[in-house]
Amino acid sequence: MKSLAGFHAVTSRLRQRPGTIREIYVDAERRDARAKDLRELAKRLSVRVIAVDAKRLDGMAGGVRHQGVVAMAEPVDMPKFIEDVLEELEEPPLLLVLDGVQDPHNLGACLRVADGAGAHAVIAPKDRSVGLTAAAIKVASGAAESVPYIVVTNLARTMRELKERGIWLIGADDEAPTSIYQAELEGAVAMVLGAEGEGLRRLTKDSCDLLVAIPMLGAVESLNVSVASGICLYEARRRRLAP
Question: What is the pLDDT of residues 122-165, one digit of tens each?
């Protein structure tokens, strides 16, 4: 069993996979509409809700801000290999590759935008990456259970394998001469982004088929990696939806 903390994470799992939740613990002092709605949803789905004090919730959440709700749930069986994801697709792949993202809040936000844009998986290297921590899962607001997070040992090798499958690798780089809006994004695409500040590592950058920049028209020089991921993924999705 693992703990899910926060209303978004718990409610999303409850709606998507109620059978995986053993029980939900709610702060006994919470009588507001949000807590009431959660209790009613759990009751309709036959999931037990237990009122406890805030101190117990603090211990169960493992340091994550829980907002007065923690659920004990079974781990969701998600694909662990990108091959398994690709073989099930009925449309050209849309992937997000993250190189060196070590902040759990950034990772959670990237998963959330990947889910919203309909990306089929998020890929990250085992080293120099944060992994799916409780904090990342909470920020993802349910996306950690809907978007496969594929951890690979060798990112450059994985990128070569994606190329062999006909997937176009597009890296985001501030100094690229081509704008994201000028790039061809209609087919099988993997958007490749690095951590804020450091950007893409040299080997990762060299493994891309094309480098593109997000136009920055104000005083700010760069964007948070989750914001940049959203821009890139939604632009690729927009091209597919355009008549």
Answer: 999 998 888 888 889 889 988 888 899 999 999 999 999 999 99
Low-confidence stretches of the chain (pLDDT beneath 70):
243
Best CA proximity match to 169, nearest among 100, 226, 236: 236
The fold for domain 82-241 equals Alpha/beta knot (3.40.1280)
Q: Could you tell me the pTM of the whole model? A: 0.80
Phi, psi of 211 (to 5 degrees): -110, 135
User: Is CATH 3.30.1330.30 correct for 2-73?
Assistant: yes
pLDDT value of residue 9: 85
DSSP, res 75: P
Six-digit token string for 213: 């920049």
Helix residue spans in the chain (DSSP H) = 7-16, 33-44, 54-61, 82-87, 104-117, 134-140, 155-164, 202-207, 225-241
Task: Please state, as a whole number, how many other Cβ atoms lie within 10 Å of the Cβ of residue 194.
Answer: 21
Which residue in the block uniquely carries the two structure tokens 């700010």? 220
CA-CA distance, 97 to 229, in Å (whole number)? 9
Q: Rounded to whole angstroms, how far apart are CA atoms 54 and 195?
A: 35
User: Domain ranges in the chain?
Assistant: 2-73, 82-241
The candidate with the shortest Cα–Cα distance to 68, out of 36, 25, 32, 27, is 27
Identify which of 72, 71, 129 has the alpha carbon closest to the alpha carbon of residue 104: 129
8 A C-beta contact, residue 207 and residue 159:
yes
